[in-house]
Amino acid sequence: MTGGGTTAGGKSRLRGAIVPVTPFQQNCSILWDEASKVGMVVDPGGDVDRILAAVEQTGAAIEKIVLTHGHLDHAGGAASLRDALRERLGQPVPIEGPDLRDRFLLDGIAEQAAGFGFEARNVTPDRWMAEGDVLALGRHRFDVLHCPGHTPGSLVFVNAAARFALVGDVLFQGSVGRTDFEYGDHAALIAAIKTKLLPLGDDLSFLCGHGPGSSIGAEKAANPFLR
Hints:
Elements: E1 14-21, E2 26-33, E3 38-42, H1 48-58, E4 61-66, H2 72-75, H3 78-89, E5 95-96, H4 103-106, H5 109-115, E6 134-137, E7 140-146, E8 155-159, E9 164-168, E10 171-172, E11 175-176, H6 186-197, E12 205-208, E13 214-215, H7 216-222
Parallel strand pairs: 3-4, 4-5, 9-12
Antiparallel strand pairs: 1-2, 2-3, 6-7, 7-8, 8-9, 10-11, 12-13
C-alpha cells in the first residue's frame, strides 16, 4: 500500500493501494480519501475478484472506475468490475476515460483477449475525457493531460496538491511506453513527456502501469530515453 498527500487545505488525505493483476502484472490502483473513504479503481486489467478483495480490505467506497488508455491489460476487467460493483452497491458505477481516440482499442478488447487465450469484454466508458478536463475524487482533483504515443488516447492524471500523478504506460522508471504498434508514435510520446510531464516538477511522484513508480526528478536525471 502506498501513502498519499494532502489537499491544499491539509484536511483530506489521499491514500492508495496497488493490485498487480493478470500475467501482464499491470498496476491496478485503488485510490481513496482517508476521511470520507470515497474511492476509485484505476486500470482494472483483469483478476476482478482480486481487485474486489483489495477494495474490501481498504474499506474504500468505490464511486468510479478510471482508464488511462484502452489496452487489454489496463481495461480488460473494466466491464466485469463495473457489473460486480453495481451488484454489490445497488447503484451504477461509471467508467471514466480514456480519450475518445482509444475507442477502437476498447472495442477490440474481446478479440485481443482471445488472442492470448482468455476472455474479456469490450467496454464503452460513460465519460470520455480530454486534456483540460478534471477527474474528481471527493475533494481531490486530478488535471487531465493527453499524452499520446503509446496509444492515441493515453491520458495522465495529475493531482498537484498531493504532488502525485497516474501516468499509465506513458512513462516508467528508466523507460517509456512501447510505441512499436501500428498506431504508436515514439516522437509524439517523447514530446508529450518533455512538454507536459517534466515541467510538473522534480518532486512530483508517479505511479506507472507496470513496475515500480518513480519521480519526475529521478527520470530527468537517469532515464536514457529523455536525454
